[in-house]
């Protein structure tokens, strides 16, 4: 989901509405950092060292996906607008190498590591609107890249390899438009990772309320005289 694209995660959400040492600040932090539902916390929370490993994988793959898309876009522009047949041929054949060797593993690792980090921390996957938005954007970009973009790249590369320069059909146009859209999605995901807008979803608020109620019940049960 890069951080760049793909769903990001951090150790804990940030409290910004009140100083940390005040009662209001503690209440804000409790509301903004929902605990996993009872019975799932032990299975979903990642240990600290595992979280760091997966965060490293996620950031590396997300940045790589962003750079790969920029490279595919540059090659698409060269193939579409160059008057040199050798440049056109080389551009589409290079795109095919990127699509076959890098696109699938990098996009899937970015998506899956982002999902794992989201589920393994208090951010959750669908508790915060910005995380959920990044997830759906990244999922759509992954599916479109694997099942649609690669097909157009293979079509263009097959045509230039057979001597059709420039290639016929929609491929030259799509191979400029699609990477441009994808690059916009990844930059949007990066902004969401930094700004973290919109707050919690309804599901996130419900889970936070349930977690607070459970803490109150545990505290009451542990109080003297009970």
Which structural traits does this protein have?
226 residues; mainly alpha; 7 helices; 72% helix
Q: What is the end-to-end distance?
A: 47 Å
- What's the pLDDT, averaged over the residues? 83
Which secondary-structure class do the elements indicate? Answer: mainly alpha
Which term fits the overall shape? elongated
- Number of beta strands: 0
Query: What does the radius of gyration come to?
Result: 23 Å
Q: What's the oligomerization state?
A: single chain
Largest sheet: none
The topology string of helices and strands comes to HHHHHHH
Low-pLDDT regions: 4-20, 25-43
Share of residues in strands: under 5%
What is the overall number of helices? 7
Helical proportion, percent range: over 70%
Q: What report would you give on this structure?
A:
The protein is an all-alpha fold and 226 residues long. The longest helix is centred in the middle third of the chain and has 35 residues. The protein starts with 22 loop residues before the first helix and ends with a helix.
Write a brief structural summary.
With 226 residues, the chain is mainly alpha-helical. The protein has helices at residues 23-32, 41-44, 48-81, 85-119, 129-161, 171-195, 202-222.
Please specify the SSE layout and strand pairing:
Elements: H1 23-32, H2 41-44, H3 48-81, H4 85-119, H5 129-161, H6 171-195, H7 202-222
Helix pairs in contact: 3-4, 3-6, 4-5, 5-6
């Amino acid at each position: 989901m890069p951080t760049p694209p793909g769903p990001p995660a951090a150790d804990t959400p940030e409290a910004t509405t009140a100083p940390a040492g005040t009662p209001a600040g503690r209440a804000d932090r409790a509301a903004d950092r929902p605990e996993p539902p009872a019975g799932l916390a032990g299975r979903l929370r990642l240990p600290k060292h595992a979280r760091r490993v997966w965060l490293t994988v996620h950031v590396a793959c997300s940045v790589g996906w962003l750079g790969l898309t920029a490279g595919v876009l540059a090659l698409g522009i060269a193939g579409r607008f160059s008057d040199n047949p050798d440049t056109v041929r080389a551009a589409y054949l290079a795109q095919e190498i990127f699509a076959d060797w890098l696109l699938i593993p990098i996009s899937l690792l970015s998506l899956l590591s982002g999902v794992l980090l989201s589920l393994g921390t208090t951010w959750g996957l669908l508790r915060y609107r910005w995380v959920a938005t990044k997830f759906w954007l990244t999922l759509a970009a992954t599916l479109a890249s694997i099942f649609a973009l690669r097909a157009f790249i293979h079509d263009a590369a097959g045509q230039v390899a057979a001597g059709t320069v420039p290639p016929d059909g929609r491929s030259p146009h799509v191979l400029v438009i699609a990477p441009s859209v994808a690059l916009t999605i990844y930059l949007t995901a990066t902004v969401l990772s930094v700004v973290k807008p919109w707050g919690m979803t309804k599901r996130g608020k419900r889970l936070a309320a349930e977690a607070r109620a459970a803490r109150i019940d545990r505290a009451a049960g542990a109080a003297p005289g009970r």
